[in-house]
């Protein structure tokens, strides 16, 4: 998308769109001469800028009396944007929870909030922005800040938000504010735990957020056997059967079986666990399992597994606080935050059988303890 630089009068209009809710009460008289001096523009340029604000309902001109802030000017809101269709059943609990936490956070701060939700389904590539009215609201000064959830901010949106001088907080680098999960630290901690348990044939299911070369280097540094078939990241976790297929492929990839397993996406775990049970694998004797999890999400631990948790409530709160700070910061300001995973033991009060060695075999009625 080719975007040309906006005319000066539009830049002035957008600056005033942001400032009016913060600096001028309804009915306030605008000092036109002061504005002309401040922006260093001609009378004609300022008149064009004010004309934009009149058409948008921010100000009113009264002949012989002056220019006043409207009593019913548009109230800018915080936009929460996701190109991913958050209502699709294949979307992780994590993204929906972060969205809800953000909505609650901004409303508690007394701010209006609007959701911009696209139509892109999980495991498919977005062809462009499909979030209804987002571009129009940005151009019309209706948005104070954007928080992007479940999406990498595309160049088109970066340019639109830059032109509107609207800060964007997301989980992708290059945004004004960036809140990321420390996937590399998660992988290092999980691998260290597996190695400490005597497991050096480690299979990994799902994308771990680091490159395959880095992952292989991590395994070699710890003296682990490396077999490309044990690294299964090709299937999107929302695809039906992805957890089952990735585990079965890794399990049969080499004559020697893995004795450690890292499930790097919570959506893969339950199907992978079911596949483990059908193979009659003793857990954790034959296979020590570590999985990624989201705090607050319902999960069924069919097999004993150590969880490394992400707290979506913390992610949403940090993103919201960062967006607040960037609203009041100078244009071009940048912030980053990196959040770590937390190790959580299985809750034996809810699943007391997890304290025992678990091996199941199939039967007519499903699974039975062996």
**What structural category characterises the helix and strand content?**
alpha/beta
What is the domain tally?
3
Strand content: 15-25%
Q: Quickly count the helices.
A: 11
General shape = elongated
Spatial gap, N to C terminus: 61 Å
- The CATH first-level class of the largest domain comes to Alpha Beta
CATH fold annotation of the largest domain: Rossmann fold
In spatial order, strands of the major sheet run 5-4-6-7-8-14
**Count of distinct strands:** 17
Q: Which architecture of the largest domain would the CATH scheme give at its second level? A: 3-Layer(aba) Sandwich
Q: What Rg do the Cα atoms give?
A: 26 Å
Main sheet makeup: 6 strands, parallel
For this structure, what is the CATH homologous superfamily of the largest domain? Response regulator
What are the segments in which pLDDT stays under 50 over at least 5 consecutive residues? 349-370
Mean pLDDT metric: 88
Helix percentage:
25-40%
Overview features:
Rossmann fold, alpha/beta, six-stranded parallel β-sheet, six-stranded mixed β-sheet, Arc Repressor Mutant, subunit A, 3 domains, disordered C terminus, 370 residues
Could you describe the 3D structure shown?
It is a single chain. The chain is an alpha/beta fold and 370 residues long. The chain contains 11 helices and 17 strands. The chain has helices at 8-23, 32-39, 43-56, 93-108, 134-139, 155-163, 183-196, 212-221, 242-251, 266-278, 312-327, and strands at 29-30, 59-62, 66-69, 77-84, 113-120, 143-148, 168-170, 177-181, 202-205, 231-232, 260-263, 288-294, 306-310, 335-339, 342-344, 360-363, 366-369. The strands form 4 sheets. Strands 5-4-6-7-8-14 form a 6-stranded parallel sheet. Strands 10-9-11-12-13-15 form a 6-stranded mixed sheet, sandwiched between helices. Strands 1-3-2 form a 3-stranded antiparallel sheet.
